[in-house]
Amino acid sequence: xxxxxxxxxxxxxxxxxxxxxxxxxxxxxxxxxxxxxxxxxxxxxxxxxxxxxxxxxxxxxxxxxxxxxxxxxxxxxxxxxxxxxxxxxxxxxxxxxxxxxxxxxxxxxxxxxxxxxxxxxxxxxxxxxxxxxxxxxxxxxxxxxxxxxxxxxxxxxxxxxxxxxxxxxxxxxxxxxxxxxxxxxxxxxxxxxxxxxxxxxxxxxxxxxxxxxxxxxxxxxxxxxxxxxxxxxxxxxxx
Length: 239
Description:
By secondary structure, the protein is α/β, with parallel strands linked by helices. The chain has a single domain, classed as P-loop containing nucleotide triphosphate hydrolases (Rossmann fold). It contains 10 helices and 10 strands. It has helices at about 45-50, 75-80, 95-100, 115-120, 120-125, 135-150, 165-180, 195-200, 215-220, 225-230; strands at about 5-15, 20-30, 35, 60-65, 65-70, 80-85, 155-160, 185-190, 200-205, 210-215. Helix 7 (about 165-180) packs parallel to helix 8.
């Protein structure tokens, strides 16, 4: 049984049919916000799917807060304290902002619908709008707010800055810092290296379905050779 780290992944393999997409992944997420970086197709979203129980893994173990997750349904994992902000937001077109938030709110925690509205005033203004009447930035605010209403111990965020204007990206980075200060563990999956490095303290790099490097955010920011080798970035290039 794994005891170190809130989330502990050991020797994780995952397949989609004949495609072997995760290869013996070992990863620990603790109190320091962790960024998962990598090019497209390196297994980052597949890792999120395995953690959340959206796709059964073929081998290995996932532990969360001392509990083995193998075989647990996604809703059970959420009840244990894992919040998820999926890539693409997955907002329901036929539900209003208010309905999205009320159906997941857990009473008695630090995060309430009122606090989400205080954090995202734009959502309060748009609370009667249906999901398909929101901008991309508003949908991302809603997806993050929805996850926070579970009052999670860990929040997993898959490409939260994708397609967002720079000002909204900055807001997301600030929110991640707030979440971490409140003691919520963060696992941030990102292609935007510079956004990730501004938001997290540690990074893990995925290549070909494996975690090939783990280091501090500061170390990766200073190592342009590693950025080029694993992320395809030239010096000074945005990632």
